[in-house]
Amino acid sequence: MFGYYFQLGMRSLRRNPVLTALMVIAIGFGVAASMITYSVFRAVSGDPIPEKSAVLFTPQVDSWGPQQNIHGEPPYALNYVDALALLRAHQAKRQTLLYAVWLSAQPTGEQSLPRGADGYAVTADFFPMFDVPFLYGSGWSAAEDDGRAADVVLSEEFNQRQFGGADSVGREVVLGGRAYRVVGVTRHWNPRPRFFAASGSTSGFKDPTDFYIPFSRAVDLKLDTAGNNSCRGNPSFNGYDGWLQSNCVWVTPWVELDNAADVARYRRFLEGYAADQQRAGRFAWAPNVRLRDVMQWLDYRQMVPPESKIALVVALGFFVICMVNTIGLLLAKFMRRAGEIGVRRALGAPRKQIYAQYLVEAASVGAAGGLLGLMLTALGISGVGILFRPQIARLAHLDLSLVGLCLVLAVLATLVAAFYPAWRAAQVQPAWQLKSH
């Protein structure tokens, strides 16, 4: 019967090409607008490390006080004194401190001019904590952290530029005028958003990091942060050492906690640490701490660009309008065939067959609209840079999951839209139609 109803539907669609075209266009444009904006929203709001996002936490300690913090929230990062204290306490299975640095890279081979390179100063646990994949070598050890070793881990992209993609472990690279020994090269690794150093709605969507150096080494060399640095009150300090002792926050801590008991224990540790600082006179306020996992942290830092949310809501509203118009067109199309329906009902066709016939016809329209929407989506994704910043726009792409979603959405939405017109068609009274004709 499905094949028979499909044939009837195709004949009906060919009899009314204008109505059919209007419905296909409405569905196609509605689906395309939704899928284009969804492709961007999906890219910027996904879990960047799904296998571990529930066990990775960033601690916050209020070192500013209620007069200086924002809406009662502790600073988004730690000052150097508090960061080092948490690291030395060793209260987590794994822990790392990090901050962004920017150094010039001395050219090798045929390169002639130095170029800037962005990286992070991190501790040894950074690589196993975040499951960083390696192409060559590995990260450094905790002993090398303590020894302020001049080690460096390069990204695959940076290694390609510097050494042509060869195994560079054991070789030297000059960054900021100082030589570092390459101990590892990561495979392509660029989680989106870059959760571990999220400082705003665009910072998490940059190109892959070029290098990683030991945190202790970076501090010894007095490397300034290339990321956010926020101070409160009237900070007065002299030079780099004074900055390290100030209340300026610029260090991001992360800890790995395997279960709820570990999380509760670490939160108690943070509260106890803040209470100790209050008793010591550093803090003149009650303990105020936070411990957020990856997804909570991204939400707190508002990593999903607001324009992507607005565009998605607007596109969904446009899609609803398109489907309302489709309901009207289907109703007009179906009710124009009231005489045909009356004859079929008089010959014994039950209402469920009327429903089936017109829903199959609507599904055919939805499939055609889905194909049009798919083509428009592919075209629209190439132009999303008009609405979004380049680092956001380039994340949108058409993959098999989006293709399937596009077609399924078009068909299902059209079937939902067809229920009322099909119900009206099934209510046609055979006697009235036979008498009037």
From TrEMBL:
UniProt keyword annotation of Metal-binding present: no
Chief location: membrane
Protein name: Putative ABC transport system permease protein
Membrane topology: Multi-pass membrane protein
Domain of life (superkingdom): Bacteria
Record-linked PANTHER family: ABC-TYPE MACROLIDE FAMILY EXPORT SYSTEM PERMEASE COMPONENT 2, MEMBRANE COMPONENT OF TRANSPORTER-RELATED
Domain MacB-like periplasmic core: 20-220
Keyword Membrane attached: yes
Keyword annotations of the record: Cell membrane, Membrane, Transmembrane, Transmembrane helix
Pfam families hit by this protein: FtsX (PF02687), MacB_PCD (PF12704)
Gene Ontology MF terms in the entry: transmembrane transporter activity
Transmembrane regions listed in the UniProt entry: 21-41, 310-334, 355-388, 400-423
A single cellular component GO annotation: plasma membrane
Localization, UniProt: Cell membrane
Domain ABC3 transporter permease C-terminal residue range list: 313-430
InterPro entries, A to Z: ABC3_permease_C (IPR003838), MacB_PCD (IPR025857), Macrolide_Exporter_MacB (IPR050250)
